[in-house]
């Protein structure tokens, strides 16, 4: 039995996070904690997990200067209810149609701030 104050990472969701990171360009190295050897993905920058189940519930990746594409690996997060990718550099990137398949999503931010 796990104590509710301990974070633990579901391996399949950790792998999905790593796939998501592969499709991003991270010039500020904000996702430096997102590495396979770091077992506790619930403690990675921008990741919020349910403290009882360990499922990824929120991704706070705003203001990260990220470029690249938004990976379909997000579909692995059945409990994802908050996704903030605002104020990054996805200029010219289309919003992927799979975003509509994230059935648990209650908050989505993709807004780009203008210069």
Topology:
Elements: H1 11-22, E1 24-25, E2 47-49, E3 56-60, E4 67-68, E5 82-84, E6 107-109
Parallel strand pairs: 3-5, 5-6
Antiparallel strand pairs: 1-4, 2-3
The count of domains is 1
Mean pLDDT: 89
Number of helices: 1
The name of the CATH architecture is Alpha-Beta Horseshoe
Oligomer: single chain
Q: Roughly what fraction of the amino acids lie in strands? A: 15-25%
| Assigned CATH superfamily | Ribonuclease Inhibitor
Helix content: 10-25%
Spell out the helices and strands N to C: HEEEEEE
Radius of gyration: 14 Å
Largest sheet: 4 strands, mixed
Q: Structural class of the secondary structure composition?
A: alpha/beta
Per the CATH scheme, the topology name is Leucine-rich repeat, LRR (right-handed beta-alpha superhelix)
| Low-confidence residue ranges | 1-5
Secondary structure tally: strands = 6
User: Which descriptor suits the 3D outline?
Assistant: globular
Distance between the termini: 50 Å
* CATH class term: Alpha Beta
| Strands side by side in the biggest sheet | 2-3-5-6
């Amino acid at each position: 039995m796990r104590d509710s104050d301990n974070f633990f990472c579901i391996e399949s969701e950790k792998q999905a996070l790593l796939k998501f990171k592969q499709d991003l360009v991270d010039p500020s190295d904000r996702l430096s904690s997102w590495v396979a050897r770091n077992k506790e993905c619930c403690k990675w920058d921008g990741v919020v997990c349910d403290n009882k189940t360990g499922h990824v519930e929120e991704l706070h990746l705003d203001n990260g200067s990220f470029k690249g594409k938004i990976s379909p690996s997000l579909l692995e997060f059945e409990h994802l209810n908050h996704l903030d990718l605002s104020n990054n550099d996805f200029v010219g990137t289309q919003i992927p149609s799979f975003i509509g398949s994230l059935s648990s999503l209650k908050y989505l931010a993709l807004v780009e701030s203008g210069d």
